[in-house]
Write a structure and sequence with these properties.
Rossmann fold, six-stranded parallel β-sheet, 14 strands, eight-stranded mixed β-sheet, about 30% helix
């Protein structure tokens, strides 16, 4: 069972979706999605198209899916004076979880709990199945993505009772190594998933980004004006992208994962426009878009904090127009490169199931 704020049925895909695909050959797979309510409509949550299909079990391609929709859900109140209230709201939300969560947990041998809101369900899941192997999947640091302090308190209290911690970032997994064995799982590829397809562009010079995590619209206000001959394509970047009204900026809704890769492949360069507020160096390792730009050999423009030691990345100082322009010029001049090798998703999932058998994953 995977407990997450993603849904298996959305166009947006992350590593958890690929794990689910591979785990089908090992037994029943269930995707339980939380943190979905009327508030989700305000931030253009990728799950909103599933509104009418929430609160019911649906089997898609052999994966049982359940999207728990409520009238509201707890969020970060962003003021320490409200910390006590926030803690009670998160506890109340956990208590109101549908019985299906514990029913699925009781019938699962292996449970992944993703970082963020799913953390608050650990106790319920553990009570429902004390013998299940439970792994914490650290997609992000809680502080970096603006989670409530109540979630940090809960994670600190329970982390030592998880069996493993997995993360696409070695740096992030290592944060928990004093409490629980930590493992790094890289992004993978599907066999044939990187095959060439016709360009989605209409010619000219094209740059692309995808996703809404820490999306910084100010990057495009600068870049679009400085490079009027470049068309900037923004795929599924959420509410913050909607107001970017420029003749050379195109804003798209969510597109299928395979289409995102094709947009990347045919662009002159990609962009990871992370907001510096909350940006942590672990993003250099955990960023899905930067990982696939590297695998495809597409030069990437990103904040200096996300460059790391990876080839083909060109860093800028957020909010500095001269720095942004220089990074774009360097990316354009570099051109595509051979790309970085990647494991298949089957190989990555094998490491998820038996991490001790793969010493290269241990942090």
């Amino acid at each position: 069972m995977i407990v997450t704020r993603h849904d298996y049925r959305t166009l947006r895909k992350v590593n958890l979706h690929h794990y689910a695909d591979q785990l089908r050959s090992h037994g029943k797979v269930r995707f339980f999605s939380v943190g979905f309510s009327y508030l989700s409509r305000l931030n253009m949550d990728a799950r909103v198209p599933l509104w009418a299909r929430s609160n019911q079990v649906e089997n898609i391609d052999g994966v049982d899916c359940y999207l728990w929709r409520t009238a509201g859900h707890p969020i970060n109140l962003r003021a320490r004076v409200f910390d006590g209230l926030a803690a009670s709201l998160f506890a109340s939300y956990a208590r109101r979880a549908p019985a299906l969560l514990c029913e699925w947990a009781a019938n699962s041998r292996y449970i992944l709990i993703e970082s963020g809101l799913p953390i608050i369900f650990f106790e319920s899941i553990k009570r429902a199945n004390p013998t299940a192997r439970i792994a914490y999947f650290a997609s992000d640091d809680l502080d970096a993505i603006g989670c409530s302090p109540a979630l940090r308190v809960e994670l600190d209290r329970t982390i030592g009772r998880y069996d493993w911690v997995f993360s696409p970032s070695r740096r992030l997994a290592a944060k928990f190594s004093a409490h629980v064995p930590g493992y790094c799982l890289p992004y993978g590829v599907e066999p044939g998933g990187l095959a060439a397809a016709p360009s989605p562009y209409e010619g000219g010079v094209n740059a692309v980004t995808a996703g809404s995590t820490l999306f910084d619209p100010s990057f495009f206000a600068v870049a679009a004006e400085a490079f009027p001959h470049i068309t900037f394509h923004l795929l599924g970047c959420g509410a913050k992208a909607v107001g970017l009204q420029r003749t050379n900026v195109r804003v798209y809704p969510e597109v299928p994962f395979e289409s995102v890769l094709n947009f990347f492949r045919h662009a002159e360069f990609g962009i990871a426009p992370y907001d510096p507020r909350g940006l942590d160096p672990y993003f250099a390792e955990s960023s899905q878009k930067l990982a696939y730009m590297g695998i495809l050999g597409v030069p990437a423009v990103c904040p200096e904090a996300a460059v790391g030691s990876y080839p083909g990345r060109f860093g800028y100082v957020p909010g500095d127009p001269a720095s942004i322009a220089e990074a774009i010029r360097r990316a354009l001049a570099s051109g595509h490169f051979s790309g970085q090798p990647a494991l298949s998703w089957a190989e990555v999932t094998a490491r998820l199931l038996a991490p001790k058998a793969y010493p290269d994953t241990r942090v």
